[in-house]
Structures are given as structure tokens and as C-alpha cells.
Amino acid sequence: MPKHALRRVMTASVALAGTLALGLTDATAHATPSSLDYVALGDSYSAGSGVLPVDLTNLLCLRSTANYPHVIASATGARLKDVTCGAAQTSHFTKAQYPGVAPQVNALSTGTDLVTLTIGGNDNNTFINAITACGSAGVLSGGKGSPCKDRHGTSFVDQIENNTYPALKAALRTVRDKAPNARVAALGYPWITPATADPSCFAKLPVAAGDVPYLRDIQTRLNAVVERAAEETGATYVDFSRVSEGHDACEAPGTRWIEPLLFGHSLVPVHPNALGERRMAEHTMSALGLS
Questions:
Q1: Quick check: is 64 catalytic?
Q2: Catalytic status, residue 265
Q3: Which carries the bigger pLDDT value, residue 31 or residue 233?
Q4: Annotated active-site residue in 35, 44, 64, 247
């Protein structure tokens, strides 16, 4: 074989070997989530507040070691730094929530590979105010009509659009700035109520029949702004609207992911139970291609 032809063959062989090596390296990187540096941010739905066992390293945050971040880390082998905290608002990404509890984004760095978060439900005290207002109104009305909607109208969704949405965008931008190389997943909230009233649920979730869809609409709007903020900041939105259908607080134990306001099996009502945290983890891993 002429020397110039031999050189061409050798050059092509080296190039092919390099391409294969790079391909193998890239495939290995994507196939080993155990190499991920994973930071979990967020509120009580991320922290798994009310789910045992409790993380004893920080009792103020009422964080569970069986929350969805721990389930994801256990399933993938990722190195988890969990700074989730019950009652957290978007503002607590950048300021201390309690003395000794640092701003959550302090846990992020340029080496962070994966970030998950559930946040926004506590801004404006949306969840607690809506559940409390509608529960009280439901008891007083004996479950009839829509007294909560009649009194509060669009006030909750107005606060979500006007206050929570821009706060979510700002928080997610800060996460991106602190962890520019990370994949960021913003989770929606699983359904708390069914789409329509279930009379058998009134003892557990004393919301008037007309206010059940009202609460559902408030949660729909909250999830919608989480999704919008995620899309506008380059994060992945993990949608629970389909997979959590039929697993709301009115369902039986073993089926429901969310505990009811009364007669539930959790220390913290109207929050995910252990099954809910596991299902949130599983769906998130599926959405991110980690399962």
C-alpha cells in the first residue's frame, strides 16, 4: 500500500477510535446517575413534612428522610444535599427562613448536576389560607353552596398571578445563576381535592360542595404559574395533573397520596404521605429519564 494511502487509513482509524471513545464516555456519563451531585430545595411537599422518620439534624424544617428527594437519591445513588424546609416560601431561597437555617440556594454550586424543588404554595399563605377559609365556611354552611368562593372570589388566584408568579421566576433564575450546569426540575403539586365534591369526604375535608372545584381551580392556577415560570427560566416542569388524579385527600388509605384535613394518618394534614412522596419521586425520575 502506498505511504500516502496508509497515512489516510491510519488517520481515519484514529479519528474513528476517538469518536467511539467520546461516544462511550458520553453514554457512560448519562448512564450513571450515581455520579450526580443532587440538591433538593423547596417547601413541605419537598421536605415530606409529616412523614416518618423525621430528619433529626434540623427539627425546625420538619424534614423527612423518606421524602421524595431521599427516594430519588436512594434509587439513583446520587449524592444528595437536602435543604428542603417545611413552610418555605420562594423568598427563603435567598434569605434565612429560621435562625441557623441558611438561604436554600447556598447549597448550590457550579458543580451541582441536578436540582429538584416544589415551591410557591406558601407564598401569600395560599394553601393554608384557602384550606382554612374554605374548611371553616364549609362547616358553617353544612357543606352546602359555595360560601368560600362567594366570599373570596378571585382573591387567591389574583395573588398567585400577581405575586407568586414573578417570585417563582426570580427564584428559578437565582437557582440557574447559582447552579448554571444543573438540570433543574420544578414539580407541580399533586391534587389535594377531587374535581367534584364527594359527599362521603366531608367529614375528612369539610369543604362545601361548590367550593371543592373552587379549591381545585386555585391549585390549577398555582401549578400553571409554576409551569410557566419553569419554561421561562429553562427548568423542567414535572406535571402531576394526570398521575395524581384519583389519589387526592378524599381517597382511602393506600390510594391517596395526600392526607385529609381531619382523621388522616399523618402529623401534618393536607400534605403528601409516604406513598405520595414515593410516587412523586417515581414520576419525577421518569420525567427526567432517571428511572
A1: no
A2: no
A3: 233
A4: 44
